Every structure is written in structure tokens, then in C-alpha cells.
């Protein structure tokens, strides 16, 4: 009898332990957090199958950036827009096809502002002649973003690769995933958390706005129609606002939408001047200025102002983490022959 009871107790205890350990990690996870999948991506993934792949991408990027420095900004942003919508699967590169739903690239958040597609096409064409059906478009984009950071900011990081290309691209998903420019710090934190990225990584990656441009339409509410009592956003430096108004006259029509540099100090250098702009209330987008104005992120911004080298290191690491969001690997997806079309 005693033996029977203790046997039963032991089995019960074992059962409880199993249940506990199975449920524990789920309990420990913060709500909504879905950590960037611990991706089986690998540095040097093409070392045996296409050792020249990364070099070809670098040459294509260097050439394009030499002709137009803005392309570096375009490629870094393109990688971000790829990764936040259906993971880093090259879905942003797919063209819309007649008779199918409109593709990501033709969403208002991407068209007409996203740039650099020809650079990916060019690198892909060369790689396809040397190593057919081997290197994914998603990886080419990840390499191109890294090479852009090197060119524009002298920032280097190794890119784990082995992504596969997706076969679906839907414009209807874009605005559900990408943060809009009017988000505040808390909303940005939540948006990045959904992708498994931390508050610090969100602030670090926003430093990408130290290069490139924005259309007036992305921030003109701050100049002309902020709210009922303040037509102009009081968090915007008044001299900077006056300058922006000369560049972005009250839109008389929707045909012209001029562009303005995101970083007024060093518009083509990927550096921490973006964060010093915020201290002078010269963040261009609401989503930029909020990082200094919110107590949630203020300290992180101040640290990036003080320690530019630390920020640069963190930027590389955060790009790697962003580059691993919901990737397809192994036998998932495909290796596209042309980055604009599924096979
Ligand atoms: C934190 C939330 C973010 C918001 C709300 C946001 C929003 C925007 C907006 C509205 C523009 C201007 C588009 C236009 O009007 O032409 C822009 C440009 C840009 N964004 Fe972001 N962005 C965010 C995060 C990021 C991240 C994480 C990266 C990359 C790591 C990035 C890289 C860029 C770059 C490089 C540009 C300039 C593009 C060019 O000159 O072609 N952004 N962003
Ligand atoms: C307009 O914005 C300012 C600054 O953020 C704020 O103090 C004010 O209460 C707002 N007014 C309205 C009507 O929302």
C-alpha cells in the first residue's frame, strides 16, 4: 500500500514538473514579445557555394553610392521595410503583377519613396551568371544594407546569411507592420517589440535617420496643422520650422511633394549627429523628436550623443537582429532567379 502511494506520488510529481517546465518559458515571455527567431543563419553561408557573392554586392553598392550617396539610405531603409513585413524574405522586392493583389513595393509607405531596387537587380544579375539559383534576394538585400552602412558610416558588421525568398507580397500588410512617422515613443516601443526588438534597439536603429531624406508629406502636419491650439508643433525648434516651411510650402496641390534631409547636420554621413539634432529640437519626424522628449527613451538618446562609437557598434548588432526577423531558411521559400518575380 505504502509503496503504491509513493509510486503514485512520484508519478504525480514528475507530471507536475513536466507541466511546469513546459509552461515556464511561455510565462516568462513579456506580452506580445515574439523574440526574433533564433535564426539558423550563418556568417559565410555562401563560402563554398558562391564565395564571390558578397564581393559582387559590395561592388554594386559602392558604384551606385558613388553616383548617388542617397542610395545608401535607400538600401538600409529597404532592408528595414523588408524585415518588418513578412520577415526578411525579399518580399519588398517583388513587383506587382496584373491580376494579383498589389505588392508591398506599391504601398504608399514604399512608392515612390523607396529607392535602390536597380542595385539589387544588378548584383543579382551578376551573381546569377556566376552561381545560378544559389543566392537569395533577401540575402543580397541584407548584404547591400551592410555595405551601405560601411560606405555611409564606416560601420562594419558581419551578416549571417542563408535567408530564402518568399513568394508572397501584399500591399495590404505594409501599414499594419511598419510604424508611421507620427508614432510616439511608447507606440514605437510596442511596434518594435512585436518584432522581438528591444527599446534600445529601436532607438539605436532610428539612428539610420542620420542619412537620407523625407518627403514633406511625412511631417508637414508639424508645420501647419499640429492641433487645435498649436498649428505648429511646439517641440520643433522655431528656426528649423521656418526653414522647413520654405522647403515645404503649404501644399496647394498633392502633385508636388518636395524632399528634405532627415539630418540637417551631416545628411550623407551615418553617424550619431542624428541624436544631437534631437537635443536641438531638430528631429524631422514626430517619431524622431519623441525619442528625446519621452522619458522612456531620453537617456538612451543622450548616451548615443555622448558615445558615438558605442552607438555605431550597437547599430551593427541591431541590424543583425533586425535582419533575422521571421526569416525563411532551409527548404522554405525559394531562391528567386529575378528579385522582382517569384519563380
Ligand atoms: C522608428 C520608426 C521609424 C519610422 C516611423 C520611420 C519613418 C520614416 C519615414 C516617414 C521616412 C521618410 C519617407 C519619405 O517621406 O520619403 C523614413 C526614411 C528613412 N528611414 Fe525610417 N522610420 C523608422 C525607422 C527606421 C529604421 C529602423 C531604419 C533602418 C534601420 C530606417 C531607415 C530610414 C532611412 C535610411 C530613410 C531615408 C531613406 C531615403 O533617403 O531614401 N528607418 N523613415
Ligand atoms: C496641442 O499640443 C500642445 C503641445 O503638445 C498641447 O500642450 C496642447 O494641449 C494641445 N492642444 C490640444 C487642443 O490638443
TrEMBL record:
Catalysed reactions listed for this entry: 2 a phenolic donor + H2O2 = 2 a phenolic radical donor + 2 H2O
Disulfide bond positions: 50-131, 83-88, 137-339, 216-248
Active site per the UniProt annotation: 81
Pfam families: peroxidase
Residues at which Ca(2+) 2 binds: 263, 266, 271
CC cofactor note: Binds 1 heme b (iron(II)-protoporphyrin IX) group per subunit. Binds 2 calcium ions per subunit.
An annotated GO cellular component: extracellular region
The protein's Enzyme Commission number: 1.11.1.7
Class in the EC hierarchy, top level: oxidoreductase
Domain Plant heme peroxidase family profile: 40-343
GO MF terms held by the record: heme binding; lactoperoxidase activity; metal ion binding
Residues of the signal peptide: 1-28
InterPro entries, alphabetized: Haem_peroxidase, Haem_peroxidase_sf, Peroxidase_pln, Peroxidases_AS, Peroxidases_heam-ligand_BS, Secretory_peroxidase
The protein's name: Peroxidase
Organism: Olea europaea subsp. europaea
Amino acid at each position: 500500500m505504502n509503496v503504491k502511494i509513493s509510486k503514485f506520488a512520484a508519478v504525480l510529481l514528475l507530471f507536475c514538473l513536466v507541466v511546469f517546465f513546459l509552461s515556464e518559458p511561455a510565462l516568462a515571455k513579456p506580452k506580445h514579445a515574439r523574440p526574433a527567431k533564433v535564426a539558423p543563419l550563418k556568417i559565410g553561408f555562401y563560402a563554398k557555394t558562391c564565395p564571390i557573392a558578397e564581393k559582387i554586392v559590395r561592388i554594386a553598392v559602392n558604384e551606385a553610392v558613388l553616383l548617388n550617396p542617397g542610395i545608401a539610405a535607400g538600401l538600409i531603409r529597404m532592408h528595414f521595410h523588408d524585415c518588418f513585413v513578412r520577415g526578411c524574405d525579399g518580399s519588398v522586392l517583388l513587383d506587382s503583377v496584373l491580376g494579383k493583389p498589389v505588392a508591398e513595393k506599391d504601398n504608399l509607405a514604399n512608392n515612390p519613396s523607396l529607392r535602390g531596387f536597380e542595385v539589387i537587380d544588378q548584383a543579382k544579375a551578376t551573381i546569377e551568371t556566376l552561381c545560378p539559383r544559389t543566392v537569395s534576394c533577401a540575402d543580397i538585400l541584407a548584404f547591400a544594407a551592410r555595405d551601405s552602412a560601411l560606405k555611409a558610416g564606416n560601420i562594419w558588421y558581419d551578416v549571417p546569411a542563408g535567408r530564402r525568398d518568399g513568394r508572397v507580397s501584399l500591399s495590404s500588410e505594409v501599414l499594419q507592420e511598419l510604424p508611421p512617422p507620427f508614432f510616439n515613443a511608447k507606440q514605437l516601443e510596442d511596434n518594435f517589440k512585436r518584432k522581438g526588438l528591444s527599446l534600445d534597439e529601436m532607438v539605436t536603429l532610428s539612428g539610420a535617420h542620420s542619412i537620407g531624406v523625407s518627403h514633406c508629406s511625412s511631417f508637414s502636419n508639424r508645420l501647419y496643422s499640429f492641433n487645435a491650439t498649436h498649428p505648429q508643433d511646439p517641440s520643433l525648434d522655431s528656426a528649423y520650422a521656418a526653414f522647413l516651411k520654405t522647403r515645404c510650402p503649404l501644399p496647394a496641390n498633392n502633385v508636388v511633394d518636395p524632399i528634405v534631409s532627415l539630418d540637417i547636420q551631416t545628411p550623407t554621413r551615418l553617424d550619431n549627429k542624428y541624436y544631437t539634432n534631437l537635443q536641438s529640437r531638430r528631429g524631422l519626424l514626430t517619431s524622431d523628436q519623441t525619442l528625446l522628449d519621452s522619458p522612456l527613451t531620453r537617456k538612451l538618446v543622450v548616451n548615443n550623443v555622448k558615445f558615438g562609437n558605442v552607438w555605431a557598434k550597437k547599430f551593427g548588432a541591431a541590424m543583425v537582429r533586425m535582419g533575422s526577423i521571421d526569416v525563411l531558411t532551409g527548404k522554405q521559400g525559394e531562391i528567386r532567379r529575378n528579385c522582382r518575380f517569384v519563380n
